[in-house]
Amino acid sequence: MLCFGFLPIIGEAKRIELLNGDIYEGAIDNDVRTGIGLYTWLDGRSYEGQFLNDRMHGFGVYSWPDGKRYEGAFRADRRHGSGRFDWPNGDFYEGDFEDGKRHGQGRFKWANKDEYIGEFKSDQRSGRGVFHWASGESYEGLFKAGVLDGQGKFSWPDGRFYLGDFEDGKKTGYGVLTWENGNQYQGQFENDVRSGVGVFYWRDGTVYRGQFESDEVHGYGVKQDPNQELELQYWERGSLLTTKLIKANPGCELWLEDMGWMFEGQDCIDGKAHGDGFAVSLNGEKVIVYGTFIVGKRVAGDILILRLGEPDT
User: What are the sequence ranges of the domains in the chain?
Assistant: First the structure.
């Protein structure tokens, strides 16, 4: 019994030199490569393993002259089944293959110690998986076409973590960002930064509900201190420009959507809001920035919702 490396050959091994310079050494059945053999290409590539009907089929090792190496299952000349692919720089993948591509469950580890464990589709990270960076960051969640996309959790080595939506590799949509000291932001993200309506919770009990842009407080919002007092605030690029305590004004009443509002504007008629101005609900959850009112009724002006999960009206 003869052997090629780790695989035994039952019977006589034959050596065939092809006209193109390739060489085959191994089992032949009815003039076709079937059984165990070694095929060496003129350009330096080689395959040692099982053949069926002149094709790589079964278990084998495929090597490239530049140092790449695959060891695992083959079907009809393609990597198919379980196997391991090594690159000369130290990267490697071990897991499932389908029709020559990484497909199914697998583990990819880079030479720099980054590592991904999870689902692959057509050679790309796609589906659910876990990515650990050598720098200490980690992500657990959904991937699409090789990038973070869908629901997931991203953690930093300093204790921060984000739980929420990702799109095309960036925090986009709704999410919750928590700091190690207990501070937390809940709300909208766009292109990796806080943008839209959100709520910021300080560990001392202070809460801010309002508008954010480019990762800064920007626009209108309501601050609630630990004593439950509410202030209407206006910010530009992280700088506070105006603030006003929210309280009922008995001499200028405004009642909308079954709740009381504070009105600041041109006039009051019969003790009711009248003319152009802005208004904020007494619970601090809604703001009318530019409104028009006639004797306590809103006739123009959109309502900005500061409570998460409800669209503006």
Answer: 248-313
Query: How many Cα atoms sit within 13 Å of 125 on the Cβ side?
Result: 24
Tell me the residue type at 210. Answer: G
Per residue in 170-187, is it b (16+ CB within 10 Å) or e — as a string?
bbbebbbbbeeeeeebbb
Which amino acid appears at position 280 of this protein? V
Q: What are the tokens at 60?
A: 């084998």
Q: Is 66 left (phi over 0), alpha (psi -120 to 50) or beta?
A: alpha
- 282-290 contacts at long range (C-beta below 8 A, 24 or more positions apart): 282/230, 282/246, 282/247, 282/248, 283/230, 283/259, 284/209, 284/222, 284/224, 284/230, 284/232, 284/246, 285/209, 285/222, 286/257, 286/261, 287/220, 287/222, 287/232, 288/261, 289/220
Residue 100 has a CB neighbour count (10 Å cut-off) of 16
Sign, CA dihedral 137-142-148-150, equals negative
- What lies within 8 Å, CB to CB, of 298 at 6+ separation is 256, 288, 291, 292
218-246 confidence digits (pLDDT tens): 999 999 999 999 999 999 999 999 999 99
Output the pTM of the full model. 0.87
Instruction: pLDDT band for 250, please (50, 70, 90 cuts).
Output: confident
Contact between 210 and 225 (Cβ < 8 Å):
no
